[in-house]
Amino acid sequence: MQNDTWAGGWYDMPEDVWDRWEAHFLSFMHERSRLIESTKTHEAQGDPFLFRAMPRLVERLQLARDREERVRVAGDYDADGVLSTTLMVSALELFGLTVDYVLPDRFNDGYGLKPEVVHKAHSDGARLIVTVDNGIAAVEAAEVAKRLGVDLIVTDHHLPGPRLPEAYVLLNPHLAEAGYPFPDLSGTSVALKVAQALLAERVPDIFFAYAALSTLADVMPLRGENRTLIKRGIDVLLKTDDPFLRKLLDRFSFFDTYEKHGLIDYDGLQFRLIPLLNAPGRMGRAGWLVEAFLIALRQSLPDHLEHTERHDKAKGLNEAARLKKAWIESAVARLVALNDERKRVTERIFQEAWQKVQADPEARIDIVYAPDWHEGVIGIVASRLMDLRKRPAFVLTRGTHGEIKGSARSTTDFPLDVALEAVKAHLMHYGGHAQAAGFALTEEAWMPFKQALLTFAKQFAKRSSADDPPLASAADVGVGGALDNGSDPNGEAALGYRSRTIQPMMGMRDDGRDGDGDAVGGMSAGDASQEPRSYLYIPLSALTLEQMLNLYELAPFGEGNPKPRFVVPSVMLLSNRQLGGRALEWRVTDGTRDVRLLVFKHIEMWRRVPPLSQLHLLLDVGWSTFRGKLDLTLILQEAVRLRPYTSVIAHSLMLKDVQEERSPLVRRPREGLKWLYQHLYQSGGTLAVSQLLARAHDEKLSTGWIAEWLDVFVDIGLVTWQGHEVRLCPTEEKLDLAESRTYRTLATWAEKLG
């Protein structure tokens, strides 16, 4: 039979893929392995003195030691900023310097080195400031430092702007004159280069663990030297006696997983540990987290810090008490509580933002503003909106000083840097790249900015469509009913927007790891990237633990090495049940094998998919351990509902049955609904899915029709289900079938059938 051509997206499957899926899988593994190998760097590339500015930096720090100058380290509030501050402070102490540090408050200070920080350092007696993970955009602060006689050493990894600060030293691998052959280091890795230059063989191993974690946290490209740093850093983590890190890693059995199964839990690092490290900076101040790392570091490395001022403090009774187990547990509990608060705040703001975007369903971009939204999570909310609605999202709130601050995330076909440049007349400042940006404006500029941005989006779409017309929306390819009812805040928008790229992005980061694309004036090349993932096509029967373990030979996954997702064709949903308040469990079958899927995203949408629905699935694969046993974990990312009245579905299991067209149950939707209602009523109001399957078999109906009729009943509130059972909901009200979008679709189709 002839196949429909489904435009774009992960469900646009090559015709021969099912006959050759194994060859495709092996080819992918081979090509990705070659890519990783080709980006490996020579060992000499790690030499810190490849930075042309490094000798001048070392000379200035030696002078500070000789003069007994006080040095102030100026860090940042995200995970990379915390880790780089910890590393730099410790390295300078080991070098023999008197050091203190300062981290900005996200809300009162904002990102980057400010003139006020320079003035404070000067008044405190510091004559040298060293930045980490910031500073490349600190033009004004550098001018103040020069005027006050404070030397400024900038170590940063963000992309430089058109004007550079006049600093004593600029150490940034992205600078044209930097000399360092690998540009994609994290802020902590740049700080590590300074430590290597100062300490040579005395560099503590734990510094490599900090660099590895920061590389994952800041979503840096996982190629070249970064893979080398991660490998070495993970080796250090596996053997660390740092009490703070061990307690954090024990929260997701990092050590047990390696000891029992030989597996590195990179997902645990990326999605459980790193959100904890980001939480203090998102919700308040992060300075206490640096102190926690430093205290734990000194406990594990006392010999290195024996003669430093801070180590002398640590010998005091008060500090000694904080080193006890109870204090470590308290610090971990504080991180967990902050991250839980971040999740609650994010969810509340997302729901409010969702209601706002519904006011203009035809908009090409989403722009929402509320003065009371928490500034620390608007980037995550923007990511979630973009992920759901497949369109650019701009989320704004009022800053501490009365200005409006915004965060934006975008799809690959709408460049934010170009958009903000076009409307810069309305902005105080802005920064970012094509898929993530931050900006600020005055209250008076809000409405002119919004209108200018909407106008730009409209004009940009016209220019783009002239060369590359939009593909069909999901609604045009048979995704309807419960999946596109247009009313659910976790539903239809993910499927109904016409876009030139109908493929899932990496945008939804409800894990708090968003990469912080809000740093105005300087962005990491890896921040909040939206690089499309790779897709592997595989039958459900072949998706095994063994295949997953083969895949994890390519880990860690992330920027530059995206984790592939699996496209699984033509399965039937056997059950759909709630697991607590934040997840669903699906059981699906392809006729040869039943498997369990977990659903964590958009559960309000997926909860409404009826049993017996035929689906194409897009899955993330992973593993989990329970009672020491290693199991395959399948997590739903997206699904396409296969309608029995489409002319064909990719893969022969779902071809439309011509015989069904003659059935009165199909040709007259009310008859089919009456048939289903009678079976439910006669069974006492509850039917197992297996019984519905048997009834469908007796009538020679595909299960897709049963799912359609269930959809109608769900739309009008007549049916619910939990797990393997479908239940009637008693009601005294007269129900109108026409209120169901699915029913209207069925009626239109039947009318055309004649």
UniProtKB/TrEMBL annotation:
<dbReference type="InterPro" id="IPR041122">
    <property type="entry name" value="RecJ_OB"/>
</dbReference>
<dbReference type="InterPro" id="IPR001667">
    <property type="entry name" value="DDH_dom"/>
</dbReference>
<dbReference type="GO" id="GO:0003676">
    <property type="term" value="F:nucleic acid binding"/>
</dbReference>
<dbReference type="Pfam" id="PF01368">
    <property type="entry name" value="DHH"/>
</dbReference>
<protein>
    <recommendedName>
        <fullName>Single-stranded-DNA-specific exonuclease RecJ</fullName>
    </recommendedName>
</protein>
<dbReference type="Pfam" id="PF17768">
    <property type="entry name" value="RecJ_OB"/>
</dbReference>
<keyword id="KW-0378">Hydrolase</keyword>
<keyword id="KW-0540">Nuclease</keyword>
<feature type="domain" description="RecJ OB">
    <location>
        <begin position="538"/>
        <end position="637"/>
    </location>
</feature>
<dbReference type="InterPro" id="IPR038763">
    <property type="entry name" value="DHH_sf"/>
</dbReference>
<dbReference type="InterPro" id="IPR003156">
    <property type="entry name" value="DHHA1_dom"/>
</dbReference>
<keyword id="KW-0269">Exonuclease</keyword>
<feature type="domain" description="DHHA1">
    <location>
        <begin position="370"/>
        <end position="456"/>
    </location>
</feature>
<dbReference type="GO" id="GO:0004527">
    <property type="term" value="F:exonuclease activity"/>
</dbReference>
<dbReference type="Pfam" id="PF02272">
    <property type="entry name" value="DHHA1"/>
</dbReference>
<feature type="domain" description="DDH">
    <location>
        <begin position="71"/>
        <end position="199"/>
    </location>
</feature>
<comment type="similarity">
    <text>Belongs to the RecJ family.</text>
</comment>
<dbReference type="InterPro" id="IPR051673">
    <property type="entry name" value="SSDNA_exonuclease_RecJ"/>
</dbReference>
